[in-house]
Design brief:
The radius of gyration is 14 Å and the shape is globular. Strands 2, 4, 5, 6, 9, 10 and 11 form a seven-stranded mixed β-sheet that branches. The protein is built from no helices and eleven strands. The termini are far apart. About 0% of the residues lie in helices and about 55% in strands.
Length: about 120
């Protein structure tokens, strides 16, 4: 059973930085795509960033130029570097990975990011 474990969430001041990590129990080569989502209470989960098998990536408009998604195959870890954080970035951040032709989804348990002074 594939498991994804997030870490790195914290309380940070506006303008600050955080780095989230998502460690998989399987090799990252198994995943077609890996993504970060975020969710605030009462709202739908939002796709933040995706990295594809061959290395390309995409971001939601609100984080372009501030967030960077990356992978470390040696550590089975995907990361999200978040810079210039804003209060509206406050959310629970979830790691997602898709495996196989049918795109079976695997999710982490979530990590809280709070941006506040």
């Amino acid at each position: 059973q594939v498991q994804l474990v997030e870490s790195g969430g914290d309380l940070v001041q506006p303008g600050g930085s955080l780095r989230l990590s998502c460690t998989a129990t399987e090799s990252l080569f198994q995943f077609n795509t890996m993504s970060w989502y975020r969710q605030v209470p009462g709202k739908q989960r939002e796709l933040v960033a995706t990295i594809f098998r061959y290395g390309s990536s995409k971001y939601t408009d609100s984080v372009k130029g501030r967030f960077t998604i990356s992978r470390d195959y040696a550590k089975n870890t995907m990361s999200l570097q978040m810079n210039s954080l804003k209060p509206e970035d406050t959310a629970v951040y979830y790691c997602n990975g898709q495996i196989g032709d049918g795109g079976t989804d695997y999710w982490g348990q979530g990590t809280q990011v709070t941006v506040s002074s």
